[in-house]
Design brief:
elongated, 72% helix, 2 domains
């Protein structure tokens, strides 16, 4: 039974990691869409000035469009931000995090300045001694890893979904405002 459980966890982790990669590709595509208006910023600004002078309803629509655009950028950048100390979001007894970290200390901004002195916190012998010895230990480690990658997937999925919805809002409002400007509605 433990062989099937281990195989299941390996496949589950691989599937979740593949989903994260697909979300990352989507995030890259969203970056292109979000920054596309900058290519036509002079035309957008000229049209916004004309609409702003016409009616207070256009003012609210322009503010809503701009706010949705800025929020979509914020959500997009939060999608690519790394989740620090993800194990703090998992409850219960946790095994040592040797699957992902491998005994390497996290590298922070100040560590980058002294990159000649970055070292692992474990010696090779210590790392080997921490590797799972039994099937039960291996299942425990793999389950912990599965929970971590699932949290990462959900975080990225939720943020990218929110960004996509915001893009839909500002794109729709932009199209409506463009039509109103063109046809003088």
């Amino acid at each position: 039974m433990s062989d099937k459980t281990i195989e299941f966890l390996y496949e589950s982790i691989n599937d979740t990691q593949a989903t994260i990669r697909a979300i990352d590709v989507k995030i890259g595509f969203l970056f292109v869409i979000v920054f596309l208006p900058l290519a036509a910023i002079s035309e957008i600004t000229a049209g916004a000035k004309q609409l702003w002078a016409l009616n207070v309803y256009y003012d609210f629509a322009l503010i809503a469009t701009t706010l949705a655009w800025v929020l979509s950028i914020a959500f997009l950048f939060s999608c690519v931000k790394a989740l620090n100390k993800i194990d703090k979001h998992i409850t219960g007894n946790q095994p040592l995090d040797i699957f992902y970290s491998g005994g390497v200390e996290p590298i922070y901004f100040l560590s980058l300045m002294k990159s000649k002195d970055i070292r692992s916190k474990l010696k090779i012998e210590e790392y080997i001694s921490q590797l799972p010895k039994t099937d039960s230990d291996l299942i425990n480690h793999l389950s912990f890893e599965k929970m971590k990658v699932s949290l990462i997937r959900e975080f990225k999925s939720c943020k990218s979904r929110m960004c996509t919805n915001l893009i839909l809002i500002w794109l729709s409002l932009g199209v409506v405002l463009s039509i109103c400007l063109k046809y003088g509605v």
